[in-house]
Design brief:
9 helices; six-stranded parallel beta sheet; 37% helix; four-stranded mixed beta sheet; 239 residues; 60s Ribosomal Protein L30, Chain: A; Alpha/beta knot; elongated; alpha/beta; single chain
Length: 239
């Protein structure tokens, strides 16, 4: 789905629509174009700077004003649907919250892991996080059809709300207790950090506890999707 023009692209951003990438004309930008460009960049959306004739060719209406966005038709779920799904299966909710994950390959792999291991849903932030785009869907290899994904405006507020509803929020980080001996049973939200920085300090403070994966090698961290798979498996094993 193409969205053309500055106002249309800006409105799509405000509405939280899933945008995979934005084509932007190169060259000098005026004030409103610079503001929109900055918002797209802050939202961690892929930006492809092109010559004007490229956008002219891609444009369907001829009024792109230097911006063409490509939006996904993926429909996100509500967290309440995930909780209800767990109840229907007679299971305690097992949700996965992703804190600033940016690589679509990691998200696709985590979606596949959740489907294989029986997690009830994934929560991602609307901003500074990868969305469900074509790459995610391809990497998930069909699992996206069975895994519920919710997008939230404020991850920490969402985690606190889930705590109020009786779920334990458990973060995965290097300085936590050994995940192998930690109690991950019952209604749980597992928080997995993004590439590089891991779980943010603010989010970590909102966790009921933090668990870690023991390391024996010279490298002290795992790929985000691999770490997620191990922690999710440990949670499933204890149920």
């Amino acid at each position: 789905m193409k969205i053309e023009g500055r106002n249309a692209v800006a409105e799509a951003l405000r509405a939280g629509k899933t945008i995979d990438k934005v084509l932007v004309t190169d060259g000098n930008m005026d004030g409103s174009a610079k503001v929109l460009f900055a918002k797209i960049k802050d939202a961690k959306i892929k930006i492809q700077v092109c010559a004007k004739n490229v956008l002219d060719k891609e444009s369907e209406g001829g009024r792109h004003q230097g911006f063409i966005a490509y939006a996904s038709d993926f429909i996100y779920s509500e967290i309440s649907e995930m909780i209800e799904y767990a109840k229907e299966k007679g299971e305690a909710p097992l949700l996965i919250a992703l804190d600033s994950l940016e690589d679509p390959h990691n998200l696709g792999s985590i979606i596949r892991t959740c489907e294989c291991l029986g997690a009830h849903g994934i929560i991602i932030p609307k901003h500074r996080s990868v969305s469900v785009n074509d790459t995610v869907i391809r990497i998930a290899q069909g699992a996206i059809e069975y895994v519920k994904v919710a997008r939230v405006t404020n991850l920490n507020q969402t985690l606190n709300s889930l705590k109020d509803d009786g779920l334990w929020v458990i973060g995965a980080d290097m300085d936590g207790e050994d995940v192998r001996s930690s109690d991950l049973s019952g209604p749980v939200v597992l928080v997995i950090g993004g590439e590089g920085q891991g779980v943010s300090q603010l989010t970590k403070k909102n966790c009921d506890k933090v668990v870690s994966i023991p390391m024996c090698g010279n490298i002290n961290s795992l790929n985000a999707s691999v770490a997620a798979a191990i922690v999710i498996y440990e949670a499933v094993k204890k149920r």
